[in-house]
Amino acid sequence: MNNNNYTEDNLENATLEWLRELGYKTAFGPDIAFDGTTPERTQKANYSDVILESRLRESLIKINPDIPAEAIQDALDKVLGVPWLKPGLIEVNKIFHKMLFEGVDVAYKDNEGTMRGDKVALFDFARPQNNDFLAVNQFTIIENRNRRPDILIFVNGIPLAIFELKNPADSNATSTGAFNQLQTYKTDIPSLFAYNELCIIADHIWSSFVGTISADKDRFMGWKSVNGKDFVKRDDMETLVKGVFNKETLLDLVRNFVVFETDGEKTIKKVAGYHQYFATNKAIERTILATSEKGDKRAGVVWHTQGSGKSLTMVFFAGKAIQVLDNPTLVVLTDRNDLDGQLYELFARCSDVIRQTPVQAKNREHLKEILTVASGELSLRPFKSLCQKIKGTFILYSLTEEILW
After folding, report:
1. Do 154 and 45 form a contact (C-beta atoms < 8 A)?
2. Could you tell me how far CA 105 lies from the centroid of its own chain?
3. Three-class SS of residue 27?
4. How many C-alpha atoms does 321 have within 13 Å on its Cβ side?
C-alpha cells in the first residue's frame, strides 16, 4: 500500500487484514447490531451491551465441558455484571482481570446432591486455538454517549482490546489525539473498559503504540518484534499487530504479563514491554533447559539498561517460573539495602502475578528459617554470599544494571 495515500480507513483495513492473517474472524459493527440478524447481539440486547453474550456462552460450554449448565449461567451472569460491582474503573478492571486468569467462582450440586465449589475458565490458555477470536470495526456502543471505536478485539465474546486510529494524512490527527479519544471513551462508554486489557493508538503505519487504561501517553510503547529475534527500528503497526495479537502471545500477555500496582490510594495497570516479554520467555526457556536432567543448572544472564524495567522483568519471570517449574523456591539477591526494600515492595504489590505473598528476610537466621520450607516461597535478601550454593533453590541476582539467573 502506498504510504503517501494512507488514510484512516486504509490503516483500519490493513489492521483487519493482518488480524485475518493471524486467524481472526472479522466483522463490520453495523452487521452485528443488536437488532441485526446475526446471533452476536440478540434481539433482547441493546447498544449498551459490550459483551457478545452468545459467543461467551458457547465458549464457556466448550472450555468447561464438566461444568453443569446452571453453573455456566452463573459464571456468565457474573461476567456480565462486572461493570457494576463497585465504583472506580480501575478497581472493576482489576476484579475482571482476576476472573480472567483465575476463572470465575461457582457453586453447584453434583450428581449426588452435594454442593461443591468450582472454577469456570473464561479462556483456554493451554490451547489458544480453542478460543474464539473476533475483530470488529465500527462497533456502536451507547452508554453515556454514542461512540464507535475503530476496532475492538473480542476473545470468547469479551472485548479485550481497543484500537483507536487517526488519519495519517491529517497533520492534526496524532497519536496524542488517539490517546485523548480513549480518555473520552472511558467517560462515555466505561463498561467497555471494565473488560479491557490492551489499548492501541496509532496515527500512521510507522507510529503505533500499546498501553493500558491507566497508562499516561508517555507510557504507551511500540512493539518492535514479532518473534523476539528480528527487530524493527520504527514503531510500525504490522509488527505490533502480529507481535502482540498472535493468539498465543495475546493470551500469554494477559495471563502472565499484566500487573496492578497499588501505591496508597492509586492503582496503576501495567503491561510488559516487548523487551520484558521476550526476555522473560527466553529466560524461562533457558531455565527449563538448565534444570533438566542433563542441564548445567545455569540459565544465563539478562542485561537491562538503567530505567528499562528490570525489576518488573523479575516479577514476570518469578510469576511464570512458579507456574512452569512446579512452584520452586525463589531467592532474590541484591547489592544494596535500599534496592532490596524497593524490590520487596514491588513484588508485594504484584502478588497476584506471582500467586503468593513474598517474604523479606530480616537477617541471616531469618533467611535460613524461610528456606526450611519445601518449596513455593519467594524471599528477598541483600547478602549475596549467604545463598550462592543452596541446592534446589533458584537464585535471582539484581545488581545495578543487570539480572542474573
Report:
1. no
2. 20
3. strand
4. 30
Q: Is pTM, for the whole model, over 0.85?
A: yes
Q: What is the mean pLDDT of residues 117-137?
A: 97
> C-alpha grid cell for residue 296?
548445567
* Domain boundaries, given as residue ranges, for the chain: 3-106+123-262, 272-404
| DSSP annotation of 235 | B
CB 328 within 8 A of CB 321: yes
In this structure, which topology does domain 272-404 adopt according to CATH?
Answer: Rossmann fold (3.40.50)
Closest of 91, 88, 99 to residue 158, by C-alpha: 99
pLDDT band at 400, cuts 50/70/90? very low
Give the whole-angstrom CA distance, residue 173 versus residue 358.
46
pLDDT tier at 347, thresholds 50, 70, 90: confident
pLDDT at 45 over 70: no
- The answer to whether the beta carbons of residues 40 and 159 sit under 8 Å apart is no
- Nine-digit cell at 286? 533457558
Determine the Cα–Cα distance for residues 231 and 218; give it in Å rounded to an integer.
21
Give the mean model confidence (pLDDT) for residues 176-193.
Answer: 96
Tell whether the model's pLDDT for residue 375 goes beyond 90. Answer: no
Q: CA 312 to CA 317: how far, in whole Å?
A: 8
Residues 266 and 192: their CA atoms lie apart, in Å, by 21
